[in-house]
């Protein structure tokens, strides 16, 4: 039953892309799956580690995609550039796409190959939902989405930090360096 609701959510997200529908459906999905947020010491440590290493991991995906390295601006490390809208987006995306779906629904399959195919397919749909036009930006975002998905399976909590760190770092670079892409 949860799978049907999640597929409906994916289509709403891809074709409508309105935040109020995402928020309402996220709340409904959390209630339907009876999800309990697990916050542990290790999850907090991995979250902080993800924020710290996010600029380097972002540079790695940019290097693989664009064959260039983003500048590691010293101003970014001297002052925290965390914006509330980025935090809210990251929380909803990570809780819905990775925490609930990967941890709750995909683990029911008990077939590793099927799980990998579904994770790759959902990552592809997730990037399409962002309406990316450049093939390089699409490739970079797809690689980072796969990294977040697999990191949520291996080191639960680091995906939140990596996602928040990447979005803040890219937002900071957009404000400082207009031609970062």
Automatic annotation (TrEMBL):
One of its GO terms (molecular function) is endopeptidase activity. Keywords: Membrane, Transmembrane, Transmembrane helix. GO terms for biological process: CAAX-box protein maturation. The chain crosses the membrane at residues 43-65, 112-129, 141-162. Residues 85-151 form the CAAX prenyl protease 2/Lysostaphin resistance protein A-like domain. The keyword Metal-binding does not apply. Pfam families: Rce1-like. This is CAAX prenyl protease 2/Lysostaphin resistance protein A-like domain-containing protein. It comes from Anaerocolumna aminovalerica. The lineage of its organism: Bacteria, Bacillati, Bacillota, Clostridia, Lachnospirales.
């Amino acid at each position: 039953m949860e799978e049907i609701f999640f597929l409906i959510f994916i289509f709403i997200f891809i074709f409508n892309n309105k935040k109020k529908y995402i928020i309402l459906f996220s709340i409904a999905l959390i209630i339907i799956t009876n999800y309990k947020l697990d916050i542990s010491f290790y999850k907090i440590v991995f979250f902080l580690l993800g924020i710290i290493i996010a600029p380097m991991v972002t540079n790695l995906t940019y290097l693989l995609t664009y064959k260039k390295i983003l500048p590691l601006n010293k101003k970014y490390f001297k002052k925290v550039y965390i914006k509330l809208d980025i935090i809210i987006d990251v929380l909803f995306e990570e809780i819905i796409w990775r925490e609930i779906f990967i941890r709750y629904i995909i683990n029911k399959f008990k077939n590793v190959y099927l799980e990998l195919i579904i994770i790759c397919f959902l990552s592809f749909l997730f990037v399409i939902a962002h309406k990316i036009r450049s093939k390089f930006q699409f490739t970079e975002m797809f690689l980072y989405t796969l990294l977040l998905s697999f990191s949520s399976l291996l080191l639960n909590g680091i995906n939140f930090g990596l996602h928040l760190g990447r979005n803040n770092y890219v937002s900071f670079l957009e404000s400082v360096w207009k031609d970062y892409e």
